[in-house]
Write a structure and sequence with these properties.
InterPro entries: ABC2_TM, ABC_2_transport, Nod_factor_ABC_transporter. By secondary structure, the protein is mostly helical. It has helices at residues 2-14, 17-36, 46-76, 79-84, 90-118, 126-151, 156-173, 185-191, 195-209, 215-235. α1 crosses α5 and α6 (126-151) runs antiparallel to α9 (195-209).
Length: 239
């Protein structure tokens, strides 16, 4: 049942043109732009730093923005309500969405990795790769919880607007396109506590340096994910 539900959710996401634009085309275009253009500041090696930041963006795009919008409109059209009335347990509905999000992230990572290699990226050592995979899973779970929190509580039109606005804000000043060190002092202090900056910083450590991420960014991701998950269980509605 879990595999069937996850497969359905994954196929629905990958067949959606807007989702493909958000989850694949924009991250790949940004990776090429950040690597080849010096307008956006990035430490050397540029391609490795850009890859780490774009991987963070890919997780945000699919796990947060895509999940929030999909859940909002599924609620609007009664999909969740009808599924909840079937023999499918509610925990399996959630698990199916989470598994689908992980599958979509895996597709994104594969595409971004191929493009990065073509741009001259050298893979980090095995330890760095393992930490990168662990961070991608943790980031997907944390941002997935935030996506459910947003998509499960508000009207679909409001979710659509807010999810896209938050995506743009996190991209521009959330520690993704620009590192925290490139932001003004007071803003950098605030952004440093955001899950987007934590994920981008941790991935930069594992992808560029091939080392284990610091405890701080991991703690920020865990805190946001646990808090969002706890709130989502109280506020998410099926209609």
């Amino acid at each position: 049942m879990l595999l069937a539900q996850a497969r359905t959710e994954t196929l629905l996401t990958l067949r959606n043109g807007e989702q493909i634009l958000l989850t694949v085309l924009i991250p790949v275009a940004l990776l090429v732009a950040m690597t080849l253009m010096t307008i956006i500041p990035a430490p050397d090696p540029r391609v490795a730093t850009s890859t780490a930041r774009v991987l963070a963006l890919a997780v945000i795009s699919s796990a947060f923005t895509g999940q929030a919008i999909a859940l909002g409109f599924d609620r609007r059209y009664g999909v969740i309500k009808r599924l909840a009335a079937t023999a499918l347990p509610r925990w399996l509905l959630v698990a199916g969405r989470v598994t689908a999000a992980l599958a979509v992230v895996a597709v994104q990572v594969a595409i971004i990795t191929v493009v990065a290699l073509l741009l001259g990226w050298d893979l980090p050592p095995a330890g760095g790769l393992l930490w990168t995979v662990a961070l991608l899973v943790l980031g997907t779970l944390s941002f997935g919880a935030l996506g459910v929190l947003l998509g499960g509580a508000l009207r679909a039109e409001i979710v659509l607007a807010l999810a896209n606005i938050v995506w743009f804000v996190l991209l521009l000043i959330g520690g993704v396109a620009l590192g925290v060190e490139d932001l003004p002092g007071p803003l950098a202090t605030v952004v440093d506590l955001l899950p987007s900056a934590a994920l981008a910083e941790a991935l930069t450590t594992t992808v560029v340096d091939g080392a284990a991420p610091g405890a701080g960014p991991v703690a920020v991701l865990l805190a946001w994910g646990l808090a969002a998950g706890a709130l989502a269980t109280r506020t998410t509605r099926v209609d």
